[in-house]
Amino acid sequence: MSLTNGFAALERNGAVVPFDFERRALRPHDVALDIAYCGICHTDIHMIGKWGQQFPLVPGHEIVGSVSGVGPEVTKFKIGDHVAIGVIVDSCRECEPCLRGDEIYCRNVPTSTYDSVDRVDGTRTRGGYSSDYVADERFVYRVPENLDLAATAPLLCAGVTTFSPLRHWKVGPGMTVGVVGIGGLGHLGVKFARAMGAQVVAFTTSPKKAEAALALGAHEAVLSTDSAQMAAQAFRMDFILDTVAATYPLDPMLQALKLDGTLCSVGLPDKFELSAFTLAIGRRSLASSGAGGTNITREMLEFCGAHDIVADIELVKPHQIATAFERLAKADVRYRFVLDMRN
Ligand SMILES: [Zn+2]
Ligand SMILES: [Zn+2]
Questions:
Q1: Separation of alpha carbons 287 and 264, rounded Å
Q2: What is the pLDDT of residues 93-104, one digit of tens each?
């Protein structure tokens, strides 16, 4: 074991400060990586706040770096490979979702990358706001060589969270797909839906973001605050990816779905506000979806490699974490912060 240099909230709602700790020694199937970059996710702020279980808490579940060591049974990776780790690092591996690579839906609760309990030794998992990480190779992913490493980090949470529902609802050519909210999640949703061949319609409350959405690849942008523009979308969308984290009146958005259309909300608002009639008229579905297991995460990274897709990021240093959190809370970022963890 060696000392890991990290950054932790020492108590709930505390500032994120330098905090050194020890990673476990390599088990037979473990990969060790030197972390180069770690994305800052909204979840990190919630975890340091009301969601956190145990402090000190080292956040970070959008991790990229290079392999620095492998256990004797590791077959998929060698030292120097560019690799990534996402939101989970273990699961029961025996339940039905686990058996099909959907470990995020593990019936026995997957092990989160940070603030969770290791299934083997019972220690606390600590995240990617740190110099290195150790994980079982099953939960480590190869990063395509053509992708910028820093801009790849957000793909591991924001990316798979948006890619997974687009794949599940089989978005492709001939479909019209709405993406609601053009932020950390939504900007990737637009890029993915476009690359999948759909007609992409961005929905936003901001004229500035409408313009930005077109630059990201949306074919059309609709101001959701304009009731005339919204009325013109009625019964148009096959699928809507809703990335909004706040509760808002969903009926106008649901009305944009055509017969049998689905709106999948991935922003995790506290509750939904809608009329059952809006669903009945058009046999519409309201759905949600988690981040993603190992299969879809691998598929997403390969898709990004093939289509040259990465996140639009602002790179920050660890001493800027507090400022980044403040700006993230105000959605003041284009479109995702990534921590430079080198050195
Ligand atoms: Zn996240
Ligand atoms: Zn399981």
A1: 5
A2: 999 999 999 999
